[in-house]
């Protein structure tokens, strides 16, 4: 699943294909919402997506954006990511295996990948043998503060 890190405009045909592969009809509204989700930096909220889409389609309601985003989550096109307090839902168009660092000062959510950490977590749970539970995936949500001037290695 590709993610447009450079925030360039995705090809309309590519968006239609992604929706079709997820089993969703490629309506104009869904295309606009998916495009916005892919182009907005970071992990946008439904409000962020709605603001961007409303500039092109003023009649599109926030409720429609939520419904579309929920259908994208159900279809595996995006993931829901909670803020540290869990008060607002944010969305991540990158569905590859990764973790999130949440900065309580800036409210920024930063993607974090570490194959060594993943191996440690898998080994830990294999050794524990969770009763009546089969883990399929995992994602850590780590809360803290970015240090001024420090670059986070993703």
TrEMBL record:
<keyword id="KW-0678">Repressor</keyword>
<dbReference type="GO" id="GO:0045892">
    <property type="term" value="P:negative regulation of DNA-templated transcription"/>
</dbReference>
<keyword id="KW-0238">DNA-binding</keyword>
<dbReference type="GO" id="GO:0000976">
    <property type="term" value="F:transcription cis-regulatory region binding"/>
</dbReference>
<comment type="similarity">
    <text>Belongs to the Fur family.</text>
</comment>
<dbReference type="InterPro" id="IPR002481">
    <property type="entry name" value="FUR"/>
</dbReference>
<feature type="binding site">
    <location>
        <position position="103"/>
    </location>
    <ligand>
        <name>Zn(2+)</name>
    </ligand>
</feature>
<dbReference type="InterPro" id="IPR036390">
    <property type="entry name" value="WH_DNA-bd_sf"/>
</dbReference>
<dbReference type="GO" id="GO:0008270">
    <property type="term" value="F:zinc ion binding"/>
</dbReference>
<dbReference type="GO" id="GO:1900376">
    <property type="term" value="P:regulation of secondary metabolite biosynthetic process"/>
</dbReference>
<keyword id="KW-0804">Transcription</keyword>
<keyword id="KW-0862">Zinc</keyword>
<keyword id="KW-0479">Metal-binding</keyword>
<dbReference type="InterPro" id="IPR036388">
    <property type="entry name" value="WH-like_DNA-bd_sf"/>
</dbReference>
<protein>
    <submittedName>
        <fullName>Fur family transcriptional regulator, peroxide stress response regulator</fullName>
    </submittedName>
</protein>
<dbReference type="InterPro" id="IPR043135">
    <property type="entry name" value="Fur_C"/>
</dbReference>
<dbReference type="Pfam" id="PF01475">
    <property type="entry name" value="FUR"/>
</dbReference>
<dbReference type="GO" id="GO:0003700">
    <property type="term" value="F:DNA-binding transcription factor activity"/>
</dbReference>
<keyword id="KW-0805">Transcription regulation</keyword>
